[in-house]
User: Fold these one by one.
Assistant:
Number 1:
Amino acid sequence: MSYKWLKWLILWIPTVAIGLWEYLRHTLLLPFISMDLGNLLAPVFVFAITLTLLRALFAKLENMQETLQRERIVKAAFEEREQLARELHDGISQSLFMLSVKLDKLERAKTAADAQLTTDQIRKTVRHVYDDVRQSIANLHDAPLRADMSWMQSIHHLTDEMAQTCGIRTNVEWEVQDGLFSHKQKVELLAIMREALMNVQKHAKAEHILIRCESEFSPEVKQRLFRCLIVDDGIGAAPEKLFEKGKYGVKMMQERAEALGWSVTLQQRKPQGTTIEISGRSGSK
């Protein structure tokens, strides 16, 4: 039975049933059923009929909710893997192409010094590809984000990875309600944060990271805005270095953010360290 028909049946069947009951009671059953008993039975009949129909309606609604939940999870997984495919194309495939170019250069090397320099460049490129592959594998393991997984579990999972991998101490100041973000936004925000932490791990030589996220209601846009900061005490890097050819991490973070109408900014801290800020509107889109 369709959802539309159930709605109409819930509206009409109790009305028809009570009208039919009153007609039969007054025309046929009055000698056998008193007025008081008839008045008592009338709401009982309506309640029983309505309950029967509502059970069917609620069962169908629950099935619809489960189906929608499964579709959201599948969609999030598909979008995450689509993003991963783009990362593989933009990052690893280009690194492998550069690796082949450097191998050709190694074959043409005329001196031992040139050969050693090219070999060092190849070794560096291989390490870069290795790091990118590890990050892609981590993305596959962690996505899609489980719908029942709380924010703090997700965030602490990231920080535990940092501690176990490279011993960087991480503090979390999370002042955002769990229901503030849609499921897709949670997946994307965690992916951006994971990429930011990976960049700190690879380049910053940091000893400590602070993750702080907060939100406030904006009267101008009539919506809650959030700001997530990832602050490290590492050696930092010049902004132009982060966007030079062959650097894909920051670019991928910005592309993910822009797809949701967010922004990602990087700022050098004095005397040392870097602050990455992710900000924008929260809520379902």
Number 2:
Amino acid sequence: MAQLIKLRDCISRYETDIYHYVPEFIRLKRRQWERAKARWEAERDGGARTDGAAEMEEDWLDQPSWWERLFRRRRADEAADEPPTAPPGAATLDELKRQFLEEMFALQLRWASSTVGHASSFDESLYSDETLKYLLQRFPDTHLCFYRPVAIVGRAAVELDTVVVTPTAAWCLVFAEGARDNIIIASTGRFWVERAGAVERKRVSPVASLRRTVRVVADIFEKEGIDWPLHPVLLNRYGYIDSGGLFPFVHYIDKRNYDEWFSRLRRSPLPLRHGQLKAAAALLRHCASFYDERLAWADSEEGGP
């Protein structure tokens, strides 16, 4: 499950220490999945294990990390930020996995919109955002996602397209999609054409937005001394892109080569890399964050444990 490092202009826990939170998320997700799976198997087996074995397992699984203990001491809304345990009512292991991913998705939105003492508001529709779910639920834990971040360029706030920093490169992604089996025809003008059966309509060219994202990210990397490959992508998972040989700097991914591209990223065996974390940290330093103080935590801290 890819990690949501930055969500638009929300404050993120990764901003406080990306070198801690990225591996911590991987450890936490693995631990919580084993916990959910063990409980599901115990319920399915009708409590066949001995009480002593179950108690020993629970003791091991319930060991909190230092930051979990810190959160439990400092927050008033403790239950809301708890990581998922065992989703109820799963009939099969595949169903349990789906439920677990949904709960982890909700947890990631909280991580990407709050720190210990501050929180940002965001549109509730993100909980059902299929593009965001695709990015987070279909790619490995080592992929770091900046979902439509807002970068600070000089004195201006610039909205970017999605950037995914992997162990090999930073991918700037624009989803150029529409009806299934459509054909999106590129041109040098402001508008492209989408054909779906007998229906034809104009759509704004995605190249200007993609070019802006690539330029801003490249400038940040140069300013921060980051040497990390950068790949611009126009993605149409369900149809085709007729590029006409235009914009050779763009990787066009459509139904003809999507499976190969997706499998290569999804099945990458590479671990997290220091250069990757440096690249992600550099981007975070140049992203905008708007937030408020979490007053409940502040009041709790002033009042003591």
Number 3:
Amino acid sequence: MRRQIEHLTAHPSAMLLGAQLLQVLAWPFLEGSVVGRSFLGVIGMLAVGSAVLAVRRTPNVSRVVFFLGAPTIVFTLLEAVFSDTEPLVLVSGLLHAPFYFYVSYAMLRYLFHDDVITTDEYYATGAAFTVVAWGFAYLFAAVQVVWPDSFSNAGGFDHTWFELLYLSFSTLTSVGLSDIVAVGAQARSILMVEMMVGVFYIAMVVARMVGLTMMRRR
């Protein structure tokens, strides 16, 4: 058990990636009840805590991450219990979005700080990608509160956070599979920014990791 704990703490990026993916897989089964959403909130807090651990190795940004992470953890659980309260959703989105964006920035600094590829950096490559998708999903949720009818599909205009996360992933990966479209000007502008982020992530981060891996094998 001690060895397993040491292995997890040695790879906090893996903890973050695992918590994010677990939340994605569990959401369809648990979002219909308060207990289920609370459990998802706990998983979300685990993801936030893992994100903080993942960037602790970068001293210059750790204080900012802790400052943003503490209220984010609180609102993660509050939003899980009171998911239909628009002011709470707005504040939660405005807290989560900068937190996740800053975590992604810190993880990118961690990835680019040297030319040595470690196991945790492989996990960090995937975790940073999911963190960016999470950040834009919370930004979409805030936009939906401030500018109603910003997103639309056959079911109407009001969308859950999980639907917005699906839109975020489909936009960031450039697959374009989401049935939700941005119809408001503000929503479209943010979506265009996310498209650019997704393209640059593949071009810069993934290409660099592949190149360094090939160099190490040679």
Number 4:
Amino acid sequence: MNTERLIRFQQPQKVLGYLGRLDEERVAGLFGLGLEAYRGILQAFDASARQTAEELLAVPGFAEKVDRLPFEPGQRVAAVGESTTADRQSWFEILRHLLALRRPGDGISLVNLAVSGQTTTQALAALPGLYFQRPDWVLCMLGGNDAMRVAAPHGPTQVSIAETERNLRALEESVPARWVWVAPTAVDEARVAAYQPFQQARLTWANDDVAAVAKVMPGTPVVAEGADLIEDGVHLSLAGQRAVAAAVVDALS
């Protein structure tokens, strides 16, 4: 896996808190980069997310939907999720730019707590970090890693569907905020099966398992149909992230 892709999905400072404060220079060193090179990659990802937001705002009627989003001035919006949300150019980062571009005076703060590879069980264990943020809203897109099957092709899912349901409900009940549930996106099973790193690790995903997660989410989750994927068949491309961002805005507006 190349360094740029690692930086896109991995944020060590979120999971290595026991090492003390990790500033940008120390994080850059973890990736084997100097500070300026690291910052350049971050800026490129941020620019892509901003450009995608600008493209969405140019779609007739979309800017007005952003105006109608129910976030009030001064509110805090937190994201809980896995790699789809931790992605440096994720749907949540696109949402951040949509609000900054369209509603700059509202002072709405967005904090992305998503961690690549996180299951619902791990998200439950990380609740203190969410408590600390005291969010008014929580946008949660979890369950894709729960649905991953180990010892493929016949092994169990990483987290049982009953445990996934319990965890999601416990998350909602533990934090007094407005919760918005976003369903994990469908995978491309053929690409997943052909992706060598997954073959070597004996990991796989099936859409029946992913769909089962959406069915046990509290309430009615936001669903992004036909979101585009990168070569591994699991992670979203930038176009796929745009589709999820648009679906979230459509649902909330």
